[in-house]
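note to self — DONT lose this again. spent like an hour looking for the file last time. sequence + predicted structure for the chain T wanted, 369 res
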Amino acid sequence: MSKEIWSPLLIALIASMTQAFGISLQRRSHLVIDASIPLYKRPMWISGFLIYTISNMIGSTCTIGYLPIIILAPVGAIGLVFNAIFAKWILGDPFTKRTVFGTAMIVVGAGLVAGFGTVPEPNHTLKDLIALYKRPSFIIYFTLIETFTCIGLFSTHLIEYLMKVRPNHWTHPDLKMWLGISYGVFGANISSQAMLFAKSGLELLILTVFQHDNQFIYPLTWAIVFALVFTAVLQLYYLNRGVQLCDTIILVPLNFCSFNVSCLFNGLVYYNQWDRLFWWQVIAVLVGIAILVWGVLVISLQPPPISLSENDDIRSMASSCSQPFLKAASSLDEDGVCLKKPRWWTRMKSICRREEHQPDENTGLLTSI
């Protein structure tokens, strides 16, 4: 590895870590601060938002401009590891064996998606970009994608609104999580469009600065810049909405996967790169998506840690009476979570009391008065 790569690689890793830190701060702000307080009055949320945004800008500049594709995939996957670490440290999410296993699967899947889902493309002039925009295949594809995104976001907003207006009719315990996932996935799709505009704008900027061929004298160039700013702000908005409703350890990997897959297909259609994509790359990306989603399911479907508070003493005693020698009542569950275990004589006393107050089998009367 050449010396020129070490500096941008280190910056990209630090940016990846600080992005995970910033998005975890935003999630914690939504959890511990009253929702009625505006976001601009929450120092924790503002700090997390600024950390994430600045890190994203610096990291994107280093990864796009200075790092080869073979290094981009591990950097993106390591960012998901940072996300799991900060979810434990800042948000207090359980870090069990299932979490470790699921995170490892997410890292492997993300590496496959990012490593094999990128196709290099040379720079283009504005005339080339206009010709690419005018292609019927891109117009049809872009129309379908935008229609699907608008319908999906409208449906998500509508369900969230109905959940607030009629909370008794929308009582599924995981509904908020699925709404957050929807915002995150569609926000990643918008982010992939922002990346497309950013790549187009960067090509025009390189031609203007280094080849002295000014591309910013055309109105369409500024339209691309406006589309870049609009989609970048919009994807940040929906990412924040997703973080507000869903845990980062679930949302961020799905957002990462959706972003990379959307970027892949956007590039294939927009730059007409189908002849540059090999069949084994498609298979590797599909396998990576399956592994990543499987890892997310492993994490999201794990049972919450059981803890018995003082207010639950009555219910815990009833449970111990009905199943006094159940193995699940041991001091440690399979994930290493400590549980309060009633002593053996306490369980025996509860069993005896229950038997004393049960009717006799023959007479139907209580055996003790």
